[in-house]
Specification:
This protein is mainly alpha-helical. The chain is built from 8 helices and 3 strands. Strand 1 and strand 2 form a beta hairpin. It is globular and about 40 Å long. This is NADH-ubiquinone oxidoreductase-F iron-sulfur binding region domain-containing protein.
Length: 166
């Protein structure tokens, strides 16, 4: 649907019971639902203009891992960040999304994001890193729960649409 700039996000999306909102599509950012509820539509952060609310019963880490895998597979593979960085980041995030010890994965993701950003032949890696960094921040509590072997999600059904590799 089309909506004018300045319209509160809470008027567009049902945020009651939401964990977070993906703002700007797959190269956008995750924002905690309470914070998103205070925002109005603004071109400075809206990116592709896509908004998606993540229900509280879904795992933001699992959703992000699926999207990162998709983004890594969609790269042209013509530069180092796309050929090596994005697949490595996607694989590491998949590990982070699985309940259990993660070792240095969180630190590795932060470091690799810095190595990828600004070094691609296009902006695909930069947008992907934006999503990673926002997920690491927005879902920090869930990352800690996963590290202790527990996921708070009760519904494992994928939410965000991505083409699955055949």
């Amino acid at each position: 649907m089309e909506a004018p700039y300045g319209l509160p996000i809470a008027r567009l999306l049902p945020l009651e019971g939401a964990r977070a909102v993906l703002v700007g599509g797959y190269h956008g950012t995750w924002i905690p639902a309470p914070e998103a509820g205070q925002l109005a539509l603004d071109a400075s952060y809206l990116g592709a203009g896509v908004l998606a609310a993540l229900p509280a019963d879904r795992c933001g880490l699992a959703e992000t891992a699926r999207v990162l895998r998709y983004l890594a597979l969609q790269s042209a593979g013509q530069c180092g960040p796309c050929l090596n960085g994005l697949p490595r980041i996607a694989a590491a995030f998949r590990t982070l999304a699985a309940p259990g010890p993660h070792g240095t994965v969180r630190a590795d993701l932060a470091r690799w994001s810095g190595l990828v950003e600004g070094r691609g032949a296009c902006h695909h890696p930069d947008g992907t890193v934006r999503l990673v960094r926002s997920a690491l921040t927005t879902f920090a509590t869930e990352i800690d729960a996963h590290a202790h072997g527990h996921c708070t999600a009760t519904d494992r059904t994928p939410l965000l649409p991505v083409l699955e590799e055949s």
